[in-house]
Amino acid sequence: MSKTLSFHKMEGLGNDFIVTGDVSAEETEQIRGSFEALCHRRTGIGADGVILVLPSQTADFTMRIFNSDGSEAEMCGNGIRCFAKYLQMHNLTPLQEVKIQTLAGTIMVSPTSNDCYRVNMGKPVLDPSLIPLNTELIGQTKDPFMMREVKCDDKTFKISALSMGNPHAVLYTENLTDQLVNHYGPILESHGIFPRKTNVEFIKVLSDNEIQMRVYERGCGETQACGTGACAAAVSGVINKMHGKKVTVHLLGGDLHIEWQGEETDPVFMTGPAKEVFRGSVKI
């Protein structure tokens, strides 16, 4: 299939995406093989992923998101804010709160101020079988997988695992080093206890309401920010009594503000920015 694709390059805290409403649901499967090349930072547009703006029968819109390696992700917190910004820029909806269908369920997004958006990220998933974790390795249990020892190369980390529509592994450290993130990140991403791989969050607790985070994203490598990862880190921190229920997460690309009241039935709220970088068209 040959097509000229119109797109917007957008970013949320440096987590950058190629966003387009120029692809139909039927065309998606025909062109998804080109997404990895489009994301290449030397020979393509360059991005952490591709986001498609599609219609929905159950919500206001559907978001499909593909990682830079071409694999499809269930959800992306920074991406969904860029999605909402795209809707605003194109006057696609008059609604102040938009329901967006994702593979992780329906997500509610509303603008706040200064190109920021507040996202109801839904309830965290703590049941190991639903994250999912490999229950053959960890045992058949519904107890949350919190601060459990996981062997990784020459180290053993205390890992807290949960899902925010996609799987996350959270660990705490005194020092956020390149060696820690870039060596152990890919090993943990593909660790046997995560059958669908995982995002890995490395956390340094600064105070009762501030944490610093670096993230190794599944299918992308280290990125400037990860919205679902910031939510997962906040949930882990509340459960493990590392900090309070409202926390500012300092990422390489900037700050996200996360709120979670602490019950498994409580939704997680994320607030952060989304911006347009440039727009153009490309032949695929």
Please report which band the strand proportion falls in: under 5%, 5-15%, 15-25%, 25-35%, 35-45% or over 45%.
35-45%
What's the helical proportion of residues? 10-25%
> Taking all residues together, what is the mean pLDDT?
96
Biggest beta-sheet profile: 18 strands, mixed
Uncertain regions spanning at least 5 consecutive residues: none
Structural shape: globular
Termini separation comes to 8 Å
Number of helices: 6
Q: What integer value in Å does the Rg equal?
A: 18 Å
Characterization of the model:
The chain is an alpha+beta fold. Helix content is 19%, strand content 41%. The chain contains six helices and 18 strands. The protein has helices spanning 25-31, 35-39, 77-89, 135-138, 178-189, 227-239; strands spanning 4-12, 15-20, 49-54, 61-67, 72-73, 98-102, 105-111, 116-120, 145-152, 155-163, 167-172, 199-207, 210-217, 221-223, 246-251, 254-259, 269-273, 275-283. The chain has an 18-stranded mixed beta sheet that branches. A hairpin with a 2-residue loop joins β6 (98-102) and β7.
Brief synopsis:
This protein has 284 residues and is an alpha+beta fold.
Q: Which short descriptors sum up this protein?
A:
single chain; 284 residues; alpha+beta; 18-stranded mixed β-sheet; 6 helices; 19% helix; 41% strand; globular
Q: How is the secondary structure organized here?
A:
Layout: E1 4-12, E2 15-20, H1 25-31, H2 35-39, E3 49-54, E4 61-67, E5 72-73, H3 77-89, E6 98-102, E7 105-111, E8 116-120, H4 135-138, E9 145-152, E10 155-163, E11 167-172, H5 178-189, E12 199-207, E13 210-217, E14 221-223, H6 227-239, E15 246-251, E16 254-259, E17 269-273, E18 275-283
Parallel strand pairs: 2-3, 4-6, 11-12, 13-15
Antiparallel strand pairs: 1-2, 1-18, 3-4, 4-5, 6-7, 7-8, 8-17, 9-10, 10-11, 12-13, 13-14, 15-16, 16-17
